[in-house]
Amino acid sequence: MDVRRYLLVLDMDLLAVDEQCERGPVSYLVARQEHERCEVVVLSLVTDQRQSATEMLIFAGIGRMPIAPPPDAGIKAVAEHRMDLAIHYLKVIGCEASGLVSDEDLVDAVRSETSARDYDGVIVAVGRPGGRGLTRALHLDPLHQLRRRWGKRLIVCQPGAT
Question: What is the number of domains present in the chain?
Fold first, then answer.
C-alpha cells in the first residue's frame, strides 16, 4: 500500500472544523486511508487570538465545549495544544502523525515547510485565511497564492465559507 504525505495546516480545533465542512480534513483522510497509508504533518499556526468567533460559533453549533489549554497559557501553548490534539485524532483514525508550530503567516508557513519536505498534498483548515476585498478579487489572497502552487493537491476546508 502506498504512503502519501499530507501537510495539514490548522489555526483552530481539528474536530470542530471537520464538523463544519462538507468534506473536512478528518473525513478526507479517512477516505484516503481506504486506498493508501497516510502520513500527516500537522502545522499549527500561532494566532494572536485565543479562539476566533468562527471557532466559538462552530462549537456552539455542534453542542460541545472546546478542549482548551489552561487560561493562562500563551498563544504558542495554545497552538501546541491544538497540534497535540490533532495528532491524537489522526493517530486514532490510523494515520502516522507528527506536528510543528509556526508563527509565520499561512502562505509563508506552508512555503517554509513544503520547501523542507516533499508532500503529496496540503490540507488547509483555517478559520481566517486572510485576504479581503480587492486582494481576493485580484487572486492575491493566501488561498489563491497556495492554489497557484498546489492546484488540485490543495484541499481547503473553511468553516462558514459560501
Answer: 1
